[in-house]
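pasting ABC transmembrane type-1 domain-containing protein for the record, 292 residues
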Amino acid sequence: MRWLSKKQSFVILLAPTLILFTLFVVVPVGIACYYSFTNFTGIGSPTFVGLSNYMTLFKDKVFFLALKNTGIVLGVSAVTVIPLSFLLALLLDRAFPGTKLAKALNFSPNIIAPILVGLIWVFILDPGMGLVNALLRQLGMVSLQPEWIGGRTLTPYSVAFVYLWKVLGYNATIFMAAFKMIPGDIYEAASIDGAGGAKKLWYITIPMIKPTLLIVTILLITGVFKIFEIVVQLTAGGPNHLSELLVTYMYYMTFQSTKYGYGMSIAIVTFLLTAVFAVIYIGVTRERIGEE
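structre below
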């Protein structure tokens, strides 16, 4: 009877979360999956077309361009956001004059709406009126005026840079919170044993914040696949779809071309890619942590 009571309590406590998860995750994914097998255009009843949308998708050059651009943004973000936010956290975790102001400024980009972030960087990176190219012109470097946004080559890297600027402080704050959870006694014992700062960092700090590294990486992966407002403001996916990401191309096909079924097939593929990346990373990380 006692065991049943505990089980019932567990179910009652878990039920609200499961209900909300079902309503806001399972049901929308299920609806999107259903529409991805139809030719629904927003008017009339959807007609089942089987795998037709997916067959078209894998022949779509713009889709693969959007996939490539998303991969570039993800790759650049992975090798910049995590190490730089970790180094920034190490810097801000030390006491120095103006620490509180520095921490506030560090977090401030994260509280700016993404659409405003995009607008700010349009004024900085726009090839014609942007501050960067204007400065290059003033310095006499007229020939050196790259298409930071809007071109095929540099746009994904510019998007990754803007995303880095927005999330750097947030991730650094997460790392700083993780540093506070490490007992000071461990560092004191290491100092007594003659360990220097570098050894403490490598053998104590990094191993003990691996769960936080996992969280930050998952947030990074899911965040990149959700970059929307920044791209819309910077380039709107143009010109001629050259700067599309998966999520912006999904939006274009769904709401501008009114090909809801096709747009939902892009959404499902994006969802599956995000899940696969996250599951693989979690599995690899847990295996390494278990070995240690």
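The longest helix spans residues 2-35.
The chain is about 75% helix and 0% strand.
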